[in-house]
Amino acid sequence: MHREAVILETREQLDQFISHRGYSSIFILVDEHTHTHCLSSLQNSCLSLRDVEIIEVEPGEQSKDIAIAAQLWEALIQLGADRNSCLLNLGGGVITDLGGFIASTLKRGMPFIHVPTSLLAMVDAAIGGKTGINIAGIKNQAGTFAEPEAILIDSSWLRSLPNRESLSGFSEMLKHAIISAGGRPEAMLEIDPHTFIRDTPGSTLQALVRDSAHLKEVVVRQDREEQNLRKALNFGHTTGHALEAVAATTKNPLTHGEAVALGMIVALELSKATCELDPGFCTQVQNYLLQHYPSFPEIDAAALWPYMLADKKNKDGEVRFVLLAAPGRPVIDAVVDKETFSTAYDASKNLLT
């Protein structure tokens, strides 16, 4: 039987969870930012984490690399990690993706816990038991399906997030609401993503974040290894991942959430053209995303296509999108050819002109 992660909502719950697990040793993976801004606060709240080894990597996608993974495996072995050790991953999506990959492969699998500190990680990256590193600039080309023992969803971490990071996570919250049968996209479209973390009372913010994570959990439970329904969670990601990869080579990189927001605009345009998505709903969401997120970069469709061909969801050399027939009714494995994509992408770029 598959073990599901325990969702915790306070640091006291995390401390009790760790205290009762009997790990032989504990290691905390951080980046420079979470080491400076989050680690001492966590350790002050959790007695079980005060005398543990700290391992630090550089912040950013460049740490999701096989060379960094090899260094972390070696460091953990030298520090005496065994199959009953625990790796606690304190950080955003890069740390949860990387740390989960390290723990799930070392010694053929050791326990790990996620303590996500960004909105994107709380509602998406830390939820669902996916790990990954990048290869040749293409996101998450190597990874495992491995569930953490526990995930701490503590929205109090979010108060200090830069606005751009808040926006990045909010696009995934909107995506969950759009594709899920239990989602409420109309309610999400009433929220100003620039200010909602700052202006939302703590208990309401915690509920919003936890509810979004729950929408993803519901999908994952039905298709843990992404054979069918779970693919719906990639709405906006086919174009989004390609935009993120290409923009990373320019002077104006995109965050993951910004790229996904632009990818959703394109997916909505394709859905209107090929899946009879209501044009009114399509326009409403597109206008919202164009109002709150950066414009499309100066990247043409031809530059994106090679990255899209490398997408993990593809089959038989065909690029496969997640599209939308209606809110809560995703269409998975929708084959889109280069010409159809280029037309939708160009139309999306011209929506504000």
What is shown here, in short?
This protein is of the alpha/beta class and 353 residues long. The protein contains 15 helices and 10 strands. It folds into 2 domains: 6-160, Rossmann fold (3-Layer(aba) Sandwich); 163-205 and 227-349, Dehydroquinate synthase-like - alpha domain (Dehydroquinate synthase-like, alpha domain), CATH 1.20.1090.
List the helices and strands and how they pair.
Layout: E1 6-8, H1 11-19, E2 26-31, H2 32-37, H3 39-45, E3 53-57, H4 66-78, E4 86-91, H5 93-105, E5 112-116, H6 119-125, E6 133-135, E7 138-142, E8 150-152, H7 163-179, H8 185-188, H9 196-199, H10 202-222, H11 237-247, H12 256-274, H13 279-292, H14 301-309, E9 320-326, E10 329-335, H15 338-349
Parallel strand pairs: 1-8, 2-3, 2-4, 4-5, 5-8
Antiparallel strand pairs: 6-7, 9-10
What does this protein structure show overall?
The chain has 353 residues and is an alpha/beta fold. The chain has 2 domains: 6-160, Rossmann fold (3-Layer(aba) Sandwich); 163-205 and 227-349, Dehydroquinate synthase-like - alpha domain (Dehydroquinate synthase-like, alpha domain), CATH 1.20.1090. Helix content is 47%, strand content 14%. The protein is built from 15 helices and 10 strands. The protein has helices at residues 11-19, 32-37, 39-45, 66-78, 93-105, 119-125, 163-179, 185-188, 196-199, 202-222, 237-247, 256-274, 279-292, 301-309, 338-349; strands at 6-8, 26-31, 53-57, 86-91, 112-116, 133-135, 138-142, 150-152, 320-326, 329-335. It has a 6-stranded parallel beta sheet, with helices on both faces. The chain has a two-stranded antiparallel ribbon with strand order 6-7. A two-stranded antiparallel sheet has the order 9-10. Strand 6 (133-135) and strand 7 form a beta hairpin. Helix 6 (119-125) packs parallel to helix 7 (163-179). The chain is globular and about 55 Å long. The model has no long low-confidence stretch (mean pLDDT 95).
